[in-house]
Amino acid sequence: MTFGSLTRVPLPYDAESGTEARASFAELTGKMADLVAGAAGCSPYLRTLMSRERDWIAAALSRDPATSLADELAALDETALPDLSARLRQAKRRIGLLAALADLGGVWSLDQVTGALSDLADRATHVALTTLVGDEIRRGKLPGATAEDAATGAGMVVLAMGKMGARELNYSSDIDLICLFDEQRFSTDDYHEARASFLRITRKLCGLLSDYTDEGYVFRTDLRLRPDPSVTPVCLSMEAAERYYESLGRTWERAAYIKARPCAGDLDAGARFLETLRPFVWRKHLDFAAIQDAHDMRLKIKAHKGLGGALALEGHDLKLGQGGIREIEFFTQTRQLIAGGRDPDLRSPRTVEGLAALAAKGWIPQDVAEKLTAHYIEHREIEHRLQMVQDAQTQKLPTSPEGFDRIARFVGEGDTNAFRTRLEGRLKHVAELTEGFFAPDTATEAEPDLSEAAQDLIAGWPSYAALRSGRAQEIFKRVRPLILTKLQDAGDPDAALVQFDRFLSGLPAGVQLFSLFEANPQLIDLIVDICATAPRLAAYLSRNAAVFDAVIGGGFFAQWPGTAALHKELADRLAQIDDYERQLDAARIWAREWHFRVGVHHLRGLIDAFEAGAEYASLAEAVLTALWPVVVAEFSAKHGDPPGQGAVVLGMGSLGAGRLNAVSDLDLIVIYDADAADMSEGRRPLDARSYFARLTKAFLTALSAPTAEGRLYEVDMRLRPSGRQGPVATSLSAFENYQRIEAWTWEHLALTRARRVAGSVALGEKIEALRRQLLAEKSTGPSIYKDVSDMRARLAEAKPAHGLWDAKSGPGRLMDIELIAQFCALRAGNPARRVEAQLRAGVKAGVMDAHSEAQILQAYRLCWTMQATGRLLADKISDIDQLGPGGQKFILASAGAKTTDALATRLQERCHVAQALIASTLVESGPVKDMTDHDARQ
């Protein structure tokens, strides 16, 4: 874009100055001449720059301004130190004038204007730093450094902060810098000499940029954003800075580092340093406590600057005052701090980009983002014109009518009253859009009347870990009335309060969670619902309160996305992490949130017990499928790629059947396809048997070992050949031989539910073909009926029902029904895995009749509903009365019964019928039809 594409021009406030400027650029005509006249007529400073750089700007006005900018910046690179001060100041004059005219003429957008000023600041800082470092090296003051090291600052880096870091510099901005050096580049003996040298460089750098000379200045430089500036040197080692932020860093410093970027010196070292600070800046959990911190910061700034009170345009601070630029920036940065730890897409250092990202991810309404963006751009453009008048570092509006006339003309407005009206409206609108977000509602509701027992219970709350800090107590004081009111509305208030007390007592800390409750009151409804209904889930939450993040993170109540989408989401997340331990932690955090989501959906009645079972299994498969290649990659780094055709992880039992409950462990088998003599080709090669055995153990550790984020799943591998005595990984040939020759009938029954859940797809297909062959071959075994009958008797003796409400163990209940379903699949030689499809295969093969199938399925559906619902609510249900009114109501609704007595009667009757039908099915009555149903539902 060239200056020939003007879209606006300022109106000259001082007509005489405008006329003189027009005359001095006689070669310009039309709008180009109007632009020069308007700029000079509104800004004495720009008029001076035009006079001083007349020939250069005249040439630049005939070219693409981006080309003029690039040429001027490039010319700085070869400037010698004695000439550098004057040359930098000349570049500042030229680029400042170029940017002003491109801005005033609408040739450049706000983004391009601030980008040009930021490019100048970057190049000036880098050239000054590398030249000064080169001088120190030449004088022998920087130990171990050579002349070539000057180009990268010899280990020193300058971080651009604030508006410079975001590439949003205003027209007369300070530049906020933090100067650091990489102490690892120097030996212990050289450290202090190097540190002294970098301190000298930093002081000279500031002088070179900010000292006023006859040529002017480049940028006023501020180093006060460094850690504890009152006591620390102007250039710190990276190690010292990192220690400070880890132990003492505050929310405002976290917000500052949203915009931080390396701009001069050793850019790679600067990037590494910022990566070490990433966990400090971007918390892994939603950080609603940052709202209060931001609110407190705003109040302190306003009090310090005297910016309180009613809005009046005269002298109003467009940056810090009501409805100003800082309000929009704080609004954006605080939301980024809340959610950016979970979503890297929200981490843009730029205000407009940040608003757009927040809207795209649903954190703010789209119309709010658009309105704040428009107001921000107009505020910044007026800010630039305020500063252009005399190159003053100011954001204050004029105090006189003449001053407002000048700024109105500067923005091309001939009617000052209209300009004032629009400006005042924008300020008020920004305040309306942002104030409610920042200022928490400090009004405290009255607490409900509580029983004496309840009062005694909550009297102990201040002693809990979550309420020991003053800040936690302050926030909890605001949310406590609503929590107690909601608890009183529960079906059994006392029981709900007791469970909430247990939840509260288990919390290790409270500030973040209480802030989350305050910002999202709907979560209080959810925790009360859980406490009143599901004690086990409440206990889980006290240990894993961070899963509440997922509830408001977007899409929590959406439909289940499916295994493939879940696998991709987790795999993509793990691929962004280059540390194995962090990958394991990330997988645990991710899986925990999805697991909680299934439980909440089930509890809220959005899905039933069978849908929940399928979703738990889908989640487990996604975790296994995504984590397996991560473990293989980590293992392969030491021992080389897997030999042979690799390995496959088979899900057995409930996982293979695709139906888990809230606390199910995973039954797994690992099978590999490689000759015993095959060796891996890594740094520490292993034979195939050792390789896959150790790889399997590594995978089990990745799933089951407790890390800082807990464990993923308990794993049971007893269904592998030879059970606990056999190797943890089995070769395909050994597996096939064992199944054909040595395996017992119960192992063939287990095979009916085997399914690939991770590892080689090709090997999985080969094993599935083998599974189908084996089922067909073993379907006519002469002892199947007797073996299964014996197994059933042993199960009844070893695992009797633990009371009336045990839906899993005992005759006619889940284990019994699953056993007969597997028998049906095996006897029919059918590959079906789920109970319903296996029973259907038995009917088609003549193993049982349709009436028996229907009656057994009735018992199965009731038992599964009881088991899945019960394991969501409590660890064990020996008596349904122990669940309390909320839990009872939920389990009765799930089972479709009106009373506990009616449910007990139905459970006993259906299980008794199922028991009898199972027993009759296992009485051998003749040959099975020669037919299989390979189209049965898998």
Question: Could you walk me through the main structural features you see in this protein, from its secondary elements to its overall organization?
Answer:
The protein has 938 residues and is mostly helical. Among the domains are: 289-438, Four Helix Bundle (Hemerythrin (Met), subunit A) (Up-down Bundle), CATH 1.20.120; 452-552, no CATH class; 565-777, 2-Layer Sandwich (Beta Polymerase, domain 2); 784-921, Four Helix Bundle (Hemerythrin (Met), subunit A), CATH 1.20.120.330. It has 40 helices and ten strands. The strands form two sheets. Strands 1, 2, 3, 4 and 5 form a five-stranded mixed sheet that branches. Strands 6, 7, 8, 9 and 10 form a five-stranded mixed sheet that branches. Helix 31 (688-704) links the parallel strand 7 and strand 8 (715-716). One of its GO terms (biological process) is regulation of glutamine family amino acid metabolic process.
- Which parts are unreliable, with pLDDT below 50 for 5 consecutive residues or more? 926-938
Structure annotation, total helices: 40
Architecture (CATH level 2) name of the domain at 565-777: 2-Layer Sandwich
CA radius of gyration: 36 Å
Mean pLDDT: 88
How much β-strand is present in the residues? under 5%
User: Please, what is the oligomeric state?
Assistant: single chain
Q: Per the principal axes of the C-alpha atoms, what is the gross shape? A: elongated
Major sheet summary line: 5 strands, mixed
CATH class of the domain at 565-777 reads Alpha Beta
CATH fold node name of the domain at 565-777: Beta Polymerase, domain 2
Give the termini separation. 62 Å
- CATH homologous superfamily name of the domain at 565-777? Beta Polymerase, domain 2
The helix/strand class is: mainly alpha
Share of residues in helices: 55-70%
Total strand segments: 10
Protein name: Glutamate-ammonia-ligase adenylyltransferase
GO molecular function: [glutamate-ammonia-ligase] adenylyltransferase activity; ATP binding; ligase activity
Keywords: ATP-binding, Ligase, Magnesium, Multifunctional enzyme, Nucleotide-binding, Nucleotidyltransferase, Transferase
Domain Glutamate-ammonia ligase adenylyltransferase repeated: 42-275, 527-768
